[in-house]
Amino acid sequence: MNSQLSPSARRQLDRFCRQYLQVEPDLDYPDPEHLRNDGFQQALYARAFKDGVAPSPPTRYRLRVLKKLTKKIEESIQDWDEEGISDDIMNCLSSLLSSSVPPEATSAQQKSYVTYTLASLGSKDQEPPWISLLESRNLVAAAGTTGLRTWEAALHLGEYLCANAQGLVQGKSILELGAGTGYVSILCARHLGASHVIATDGSDDVVASLSDNFYLNELQDISMIEGKELKWGQALMGGEHPEWNGGRNIDLILGADVTYDASVIPALVSTFGDLFELYPNIKIIIAATIRNQKTFESFLEACRMNKYKVENLEFGIKAAELQEGPFYPHKVPIQLSLIMRS
């Protein structure tokens, strides 16, 4: 169906649908000339609103988007004898209007499906792959953890890994610190060819939630990825085996948005030391959203005090209008740092 649309229509369709499935608050609605086109409306319905296409965004969000979309379609129509609104879109809106929609406060506390498009892994002939996650969009979830939503640093680190997968990830054993929703770990296991991935977090609730997101991305029966509790600053215990991780090797450590709180930096860098003792040749890549320059400088200083080599990895964020998925703010600085043992 998409092949019958003009290049401009396809681009706008892709952008809108991908933003919608990522539950973006502000969507780029297609131009009127496309919205009033019946074929475009059919493609829009099939890609975003038809049941079973992808895990659906929350009901309240879907209703808000459909209301605004139908209004824009109405405003775009020039001849009601020749043009109109798709019956499928109207039926979808009617169904939502008659359903039970939770209050705003309730909806904000509930987990919802969010789907991230990996546009950089796509091709002209195939739709790009995606990662669907069950996450909480409220800033701080239960027990004070921020790990139940995907932050922009994880999305940016993911883009860097997609661009450098052959040398960094393919065939390598990966450990993620502060995995949160598991976005980076799932990306490495499902799409970038890692041999084994351990998604770790210090929160029991976060680790327990990882299995749901593994399932959503068809990783539930695959032994190459696992969730594991790892509290920074505490000794790495072997569990059932005398050696941590059963003595298996690890090649690359990843962490996104793990340096936002100055109080946890000593424990984090202490864990770096434990991991370097076990795996002297590992590389550590940390993605940090620079909200407070002083806090990030304290992280760099802690690394230098432990005689770790820190290298700034240059990898710019695409301007918002050039992003094709995933979508994240381009004006907030995100620093990628490579850390190695001297």
UniProtKB/TrEMBL annotation:
Example of a GO cellular component annotation carried by this entry: cytoplasm
Signal sequence interval, chain numbering: none
GO molecular function: S-adenosylmethionine-dependent methyltransferase activity
SUPFAM superfamilies assigned: S-adenosyl-L-methionine-dependent methyltransferases
Superkingdom classification of source: Eukaryota
Name of the featured protein: FAM86 N-terminal domain-containing protein
Annotated source species: Amorphotheca resinae ATCC 22711
